[in-house]
Structures are given as C-alpha cells and as structure tokens.
Specification:
The protein has 15 helices and 15 strands. By secondary structure, the protein is an alpha/beta fold. Bound molecules: pyridoxal-5'-phosphate.
Amino acid sequence: MENRKLSRRHFIGSVSAVSAGIATSGLAPAMGGVMTTDDKLAILGGNPVHTGSWPKWPRWIPETDEPQLLKVMRSGVWSRAGLADEFERQWAKQIGAKRCLAVVNGTGALHIALAQLGLGGGDEVIVTPYTFIASVSTILMTGAMPVFADIDPETFQISPEQIEKKITPRTRAILPVHILGLPADMPRIMAIAKKHNLVVVEDACQAWLAEINHQKVGTFGNAGCFSFQNSKNIAIGEGGAIVSNDDELMDRCYSFHNFGNPYGSAVGSVGVGTIMAGTKLRMAEYQAAIGLAQLPRLDAETTLRNENAAYLRSKLVDIPGILPYKLYEGVTRAAYHLFPFRYKKEHFKGLSRRTFLRALQAEGVPCSVGYTVPLNRMAYLEHTFNSKNYRKMYPAELLDIRAYNEQNVCPEADRICTEEAVWFTQNMLLGSRKDMDDIASAIDRIRKNADKILNK
Ligand SMILES: *Cc1c(COP(=O)(O)O)cnc(C)c1O
C-alpha cells in the first residue's frame, strides 16, 4: 500500500519534470537565445523571466530516508547511542578530521569548543561582524569579549589585515567564520594565530565540504564547528558537530556535552563521579538517523552548487553594477550556502537595492539583502556588558559601550549590510543551467529598464 502510494507520487513528479522540459525547449527558439532586454518588467505587469519552481529544501526521499528513521523510532532507543556514534565516524571521515563530536546544534558546538579551549573572562576573541548571531553570542557565553575585525568586501570574509590590527595583549583567540559557505583566508589567519600564539575555532556552520588546497575547512584551527539546522546544506532540523585532531580537547568536549561525566582520557577517573561542571547537548538518535540519510547526497549536491555558482558568476560579472563574490586563491571548493553579490545602484540609474530586489522577485527570482545589521551594532552587547558577571569580570572602562562601539567600527560590513549585499539561497544552485540563465537575464532586464521603476 505504502509502496504504491510512493511510486505514484514519484510518477507525478517525473511527469511534471517532462512537461517543464517541453515548455522550456518550446520557448528557447522563440526567444532566439537572445537576452530579452526591452520587454516589460514583471513588476510593471510583464511576464516574469522565470516561471516554474526552484528546487525545494530540505529534501526528503521516503524510499532512502525513512527506513533507518523508522527503525530508530520503533526501537525505543531515542537518546544518544550507536547511530550518533556512526554519524560522528562518517562526518569525521568526510571532513578529514581525527575526531568528531555530534551535538544538538551548531550553537552548542561553538559554545562547547570555546569553553573547552579555555576561553573566559578577560580574554578577547577576534570575530567578523558579518555573520549569524551565534558566532558572537557563544563568545559571550564563555565570559570572553568579542572584538570585531572588518571584512574584505570582495570576499565577504573577515580580513586578515584587520585581524592583525585588533590584536592586543588580551587577545586569546580568533573565530573565523566561513560565512555564506565561502572559505575565509585560513592560511593567512593560521599564520597570524601562530605568530601571536592564539587559539582558532572555525565557525564552519555554513561551510560543509568547503576546502582550501583540498583541505576541508574546519580542520585548519584547533576545532571546527558545523550546523545541520533546517536551512543548512545538510538539514537535520537541529544538529551540530565539532571536529578536531586534538584527542584531549575532544575528550573534554565529550565530557562537557554529557553533564561533565568522564570520557576517554578521563576514563580512569570513573568511579569518582562527575569530573567537571558540564551541560547536556547530546545529539539524539533520530537526529543522527536523519543526518545519515542526508549525508550520502551532500558531495554530489556540493559539486552541482559549485558548477552552477561558477556558471552564474561568469554571467553576472559581465553585468555592470553586479559584483559577485571573489574566492581566495587556493580555494578548491566552496559550500555556497548562499550566493552573494554586491549591487552598485549607480550602474542601475540610482535604483535602490530595495526596489531592485522587488523587481527581481517579480521576475520569479527569490533574493534577499541578507544580514541587515552587523553584529557589532546590536543591543545584545550592551545588555551583556551590564550583566552581573561582566561587571565583576571587567574594569568599567572596558564595558563603556560608547568607547567599545568606537573601537569596533567596521565600515565595510556596514556598507554591505545597509546598501550592497544581495543573496541567493543554496537550493537555487541545485537548479538547471536554464535557471541560472534566467537569473542573469532577469537582472539584465531590470538594469536596462531601471529608469521605468525609479519611483516604484
Ligand atoms: C547556523 C549558524 C550557526 C548556528 O547553528 P545552529 O545549528 O542554528 O545552532 C552558527 N554560525 C553560523 C555562521 C551559522 O550560519
């Protein structure tokens, strides 16, 4: 019964894929392969450049994804056991790290790694302002002080030059984020860390399988952290992992994520009970089952994203006013959690980014501005500096939010957030070449007709 239902759904799926194929091949000769430039913009009532849907995310393939999950549910073993171990083995292997610890989410992974590398009150951790809140809130959870280094606008990543300028006698760590799934400049960042004897925790929560000179990101620093949240390129709903080659660190991370109970090198102390104050962030068996179902697809999907991103980028660089991301030299693969570019309105007759986005969405191309407020400018910092713990750990002058804000200005991140960045999401890069062509055609069409929507 179940099988028949599934294969029927499959049949319907393939029929609509075929009819979509017919529709597009019928359209191409009519347009003569030429970019449509002077036809009416969709936002003004014209036909959208892109019709039809974009690949859905997350993916769930009942035939392959459900058996193990159902087995877990029927077994009654739902808390961490053998499948979480298996997920760790497979993720460590994929990343090329000696050890992996699976945890409930990426935020938990960062918190554990930072805490077990000994960061705490009085320490400064250098981080980018252009990232997700968890990259910085986890620094604050340890009692350390985030110090913001501005980004390189061409790559969207933390700038190594800016990192060096921010080093003080209190600096203990760098937290590079491979934001948008594009690798940060790890060779230079590691050289800075070595020179100043700093710990490095890589936030690779958007950068699964990204690599520099064929080495996976997450393996350059003392530890690398990953997220498998619902929108991420491996979606578990909630899930995370820490990878490292440092056995002692990973044993401490294991203990900390499991109430502080002894593990590994600390196993000799079994019998004395809990060895450290810990928390509980264990991955559940059903999370592991979902992750193990997604994992076999990740490599091929990553390859497809890389191919489509390179193709789309090659089309967009030719459009004046569209500046796609640059990758650092040596990057052999990116994860493309997002495809970013900078929008320069002067090449679009002054058309605002907001109206440009609305026009692009009307053409059937989903897009967003991404992060609108850099993390050095949000209220959580002052809130933390006013907390009891921070007031006991730091002298008043280090908690003066005005002085702090002045020392942490990041003009490049400001400009990207408030004026220039545009993002496409990773699922769009799982589409066809024609989908990529449509994105470029839609942008070109808007540029050529920008004067008609200036006051929209
Ligand atoms: C998603 C994300 C996190 C947090 O991961 P969760 O699994 O959502 O807790 C941390 N840093 C970055 C850059 C992220 O994108």
